[in-house]
Amino acid sequence: MPSRVVRSVSVSVALAGVLALVGCTTTAPEPEADATVTTVRPADGTTAVTDADAATRAIETSRSLFESTPLVVVSADDDDASFLAAQVAVELGVPLLLDGRGEAVAESASPAPSSTGAPDEPAGGSTAEPEASALDDEIERLGAATVIAVGDVDAESFGDLDVVASDADAEALREATGMDVSDSPDDLTPAAIAALPAPERSTSTPSASAAPIHPMPEPAAPLEGTIALSTDAAGDAAALATARAAGVPATVLPAGAADPLGSTAAIGALHDAGAASTLLLGEAFGTLPDPDWAVRTAATGFELPGGGQHLFADRLYVALYGAPEVPVLGVLGEQDVPATIERARTTAAEYAGLTDRTVVPTLEIIATVAAGDAGDDGNFSNELATSRLEPYIDAAADAGVYVVIDLQPGRTDFLTQAKLYESLLAKPNVGLALDPEWRLAPDEKHLTQIGSVSAQEINTVSDWLADLVNRESLPPKMFVLHQFRLDMIENRQDVDMSHPELELLIHADGQGGQPDKQATWRALHADAPAGMAWGWKNFYDEDLPMLTPEQTMRDVTPEVDLVTYQ
């Protein structure tokens, strides 16, 4: 049975409709007053539709975008049916809902025993009755009078509604609806659904030979100010189709990488759309720690060299270290700004053929310099004016060079000094480094001992910096902790790694013979916080000998994420 009509219209009415169509012109009929589809733009910001159940996601998407419709499409909760049904829903401009009731009945018939031997209570109300109620409630909320049922859907379950039922077969669905439905594998994908044209008004009329659809919906005008991101998981087809039916543009991401910050396609789509409302459609987006920040940040359009906004995994940073115009503190200060940028790019280029990762030239600029004298503020640290750093940062931004500003605070604390450079840290290409070697106790002076900092103080800085990043819709920042002795960071296991706005890196600063440096490297890795990235420093004068780029990539294991030259 390819198609059938259940409680649609009487035979005489259907025949009258056919006869009327024979004598009419090709002009589309005027829609009935109650046939208009009404959509609504979601609230400003990000709406994440991430429930584990695809049928629930479809309902939530419908609630987010549709106020009323005379007709809905209901598909069996399986891939074949939903991809075919999606084409009909988008052309008609109506929601696509999923009927998961058959699965729920089967699951509820044989409940899994709990550890006590008694049947488990169903999680999240996923029994047959609640699922049926959720679907029925949504159809009632929408005011739909007609259902197009595709696949293994119980047409009798819709009560007094008119039902046009079709097997999950393209030919059957064409016969049932009079619409052009494709069963080409290329058309049965989330990407193909996203590419379907938005519904057009007064054109979606089934042929005279089709099963009756009454009243015929009049699609709403495409929603403006809204964009959707979905995944390529088949279970997201219904939610995605509902978004397209509302005229919402959609971009599809891999389900295994459902992160706007990591996707050039998502960044470009969000930036170009400039939308006030964003829908994230897919269970995979549920892993995002802060979806709203991720969307706001991606929408800025900023990308690191190599694409995306995440710092590590597929990038290697190669940095020059030092202070502006102070050659004794490192190679960064040995030349003017243009020459520094060129030297950074040349140094980084030596690594390009040694790794599959994108190599990013970097500057690590000492912003507060450890001092032998207390100075007017008594903190044994000279704070450089932001105006001395800005030319480097601006030139770096133009050249695709990342920047890290380094703090050597003396007797003050890291947070106090970090706040002095808030205007610089508010730039997307600027990270922050803390150098505990130069963190003094109230009665200490530099070079008489190695300084240290507590995890608690580090966390006060990371809390503040993460808040800045989130508030300003900035991409994740590199947050560097310099260390070459275990006691330089007290209670290192308590360093907060939970901020999605920061990507932390321990920078091994040891100098001297390579056996000693390798021993330090191994010691620092022991019991380090999970998820930490790693940096290695090559000293031109102090290392015996300094590693070549080839040796750095070959001999330093695990492989480094940042190589700094001083």
Automatic annotation (TrEMBL):
| Keywords for this protein | Signal
Chain segments carrying region Disordered: 105-131
Low complexity composition bias: residue spans = 105-115
Query: Signal sequence span per UniProt?
Result: 1-28
Q: What is this protein called?
A: Cell wall-binding repeat-containing protein
- Native organism is Labedella endophytica
